[in-house]
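Database export, one record per block. Field names are fixed; values are copied verbatim from the stored entry.
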Amino acid sequence: MDLPQEIEAKFLQVNHDDIRASLKKAGATLVHPMRLMRRNLFDHPDDRYKKAFQHEKLRLRDEGDKLTINYKKKSSDSPYVHELETTVGSYDDMKQILFAIGFKTYSYQESKRETWHLDDVEVVLDEWPWLDTYIEIEGPSEPAIQAAAKKLGFDWSGAYFGSVDTAYRAQYPKMTKEDSIANVAEVRFGDPLPEYFKHLQ
């Protein structure tokens, strides 16, 4: 099955106040102020997604203004991922549907996100527990993302690609491809650094 491609790039360890100033200067529009987001990751009983090093993910997310369910699959020949996403009416009801058809949840995660529009791309300011702040630029094409990054003062050679694990791996250099924030059962703001990460610093 051919899935739509998600084209995005991350720029890590940035100051969000500096980014906001750059966005305003570039004429960007604030779409959603910083808000709390929560998500559950799901897998089959045989842990096939986790065993594939998170190259496939099924995620239910409360984005503050909408609820979405999302399937992502990473291909080996591209830095980008393919994804399908749709909205749902109830977070808890969707969880129960997934449980009823045999899925299980293995990680609950919180993050914070602020969303801006710049030209034809979306720029999001992201915060995650135990991680320096970063931004993500998503758009219809790589040239569009590159143009937005340049407007914001970023060098494309410093871009990162992939899931939030990419940002964690940059900050916790002992992480391997087997390590993932999804291996932490509860990822919450205000909680101390979990034992899982202490040996990865």
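Remark 1: The chain has a mean pLDDT of 94.
Remark 2: Strands lie at 5-6, 8-11, 29-43, 56-62, 67-74, 81-87, 104-118, 121-127, 134-138, 186-187.
End of record.
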